[in-house]
Write a structure and sequence with these properties.
Length: 284
């Protein structure tokens, strides 16, 4: 679907760009003169509501260690394991920032977590990290550790798999390949594979490929495109993908408005920000 540029401009300028601008001071370590309801809610739950994917506390904390932005062959397996543990267990937990996030040995985890008893589980695992509580638990550690070994071997193939191939492998090949990712749904799996891209373990998709992934996922980003008037509720996956691609291209050419480098703008951040726009809409 080809969308008129003016429609993109009008929809993004108000109120999506206003949303971005309203919370951009967070990235600069600043505070607005008067804290709005939007600001208060985003700052209180930045991991869940900040539109700048890589600037939220959990991801920013991991990125301090360069292995999470440029993994080497000798660190790749540890990075994959650690990314799974972060997404599946520690993300948004009270203890998330108490460890650098890289687990190279099993003992590293047990030294951090202890015996895995139930009395302090809530300190290490937020069961509501991605919305409604599910089967998130630190008891999945060994399962995740084995999955990290298998997925890292897959990534180390003579011909490195693409983003789309890796996403498909992680989502669907567990039973065939002998690994499992309990508690991971379509969204958390997507976030995990994106984390692998940032680590340099998986190649970037084209924006068209990623637009198709967004359309297939059909979650918050799609809802936000409807709210912005760029697509209808009855839009096909092709129309959703087309709207996402054009939104990305338009936003990527707005350096004065979007402060691209400052917020870490890329196609993953846009999908993330659209999801947060939907979640924060009531405070705009």
């Amino acid at each position: 679907m080809v969308l008129p540029t003016v429609e993109i401009a009008e929809s993004l300028t108000h109120p999506f760009v206003d949303f971005i601008d309203a919370v951009l001071p967070y990235v600069r370590g600043e505070q607005p003169a008067k804290a709005s309801d939007l600001w208060k809610n985003v700052v209180t739950a930045a991991n869940k509501l900040l539109p700048f994917r890589e600037r939220a506390p959990g991801r920013a904390h991991l990125r301090v260690n360069p292995v999470f932005t440029s993994a080497r062959p000798d660190t790749a397996t540890s990075v994959v394991r650690s990314l799974i543990i972060h997404r599946g267990i520690t993300f948004n937990s009270p203890k998330e920032l108490d460890h650098p996030g890289l687990f190279t040995r099993r003992q590293d985890w047990y030294s951090f977590r202890g015996d895995g008893g139930d009395t302090d589980e809530a300190l290490f695992c937020d069961r509501r990290a991605y919305g409604q509580p599910n089967d998130r638990s630190s008891k999945h550690f060994e399962t995740y550790w084995r999955a990290g070994d298998i997925i890292s071997r897959y990534l180390n193939a003579p011909t490195p798999p693409s983003f789309v191939e890796t996403l498909s492998f992680v989502r669907t090949n567990g039973p065939l390949e002998g690994f499992a990712l309990p508690s991971f749904g379509p969204l958390s799996t997507l976030l995990l594979v994106e984390d692998m891209v940032y680590a340099g373990l998986v190649s970037w998709p084209s924006v068209e490929e990623f637009g198709a992934v967004v359309a297939e996922l059909g979650k918050g980003a799609t809802d936000a495109l409807v709210m912005l008037g760029l697509i209808s509720h009855e839009a096909s996956q092709a129309e959703i993908a087309g709207a996402f691609v054009q939104t990305y291209r338009y936003a990527n050419n707005l350096p004065d408005n979007f402060n691209v480098l400052e917020m870490g703008f890329d196609m993953f951040m846009l999908e993330h920000a659209l999801c947060k726009y939907k979640r924060c809409y009531a405070w705009l």
